[in-house]
Write a structure and sequence with these properties.
This protein has four helices and no strands. By secondary structure, it is mostly helical. Helix 2 (24-65) runs parallel beside helix 4 and helix 3 (68-90) runs antiparallel to helix 4 (106-147). The longest helix is centred in the first third of the chain and has 42 residues, at 24-65.
Length: 149
């Protein structure tokens, strides 16, 4: 089995040049495409968050009335769901244009784009984990409500 290794941003740029040639236009388009994927995935998570909050608006009061455990789990879950939304809005969903900033060379500008993409990807993963924790708390409150605990 061939082992793949993670590349540093400068190494990734060199690898992209191997694949796509030295044409900066193509390399820039590829990197901007990565941001589009991140944006779409982050919007998907934000949609899930909106659904969770909408359902809570309808059923939350009933769940909260069922007891302290349900109230606590609901509060815990919603806090993490909202935290995930904040991480997404402050991370992958930030508006920054690819041509808004420039380094001293085009290569360094592309490396900076790769670094920004990597940072946003990390925030996306953090938001995903935080959202799952929040949904687990929310589901715990729902189970507590359904089972009458």
């Amino acid at each position: 089995m061939i082992k793949l290794r993670m590349l540093a941003p400068k190494e990734e740029l060199e690898y992209l040049k191997e694949i796509h040639g030295e044409g900066y236009s193509r390399l820039f388009s590829v990197l901007i495409g990565h941001f589009e994927v991140l944006q779409n995935r982050a919007q998907m998570l934000l949609s899930l968050i909106a659904i969770c909050l909408t359902i809570t608006g309808f059923s939350g009061p009933q769940i909260a009335k069922s007891g302290v455990a349900a109230q606590s789990l609901l509060g815990f879950g919603l806090s993490f769901v909202l935290l995930a939304a904040l991480i997404l809005v402050m991370g992958p969903l930030q508006m920054r244009w690819g041509t808004q900033r420039r380094a001293d060379t085009v290569d360094n500008s592309l490396v900076a784009l790769i670094e920004r993409r990597n940072a946003r990807t990390r925030k996306y993963h953090v938001a995903s984990v935080v959202l799952v924790v929040g949904l687990a708390g929310y589901m715990g409150s729902l189970l507590t409500f359904i089972l009458g605990l």
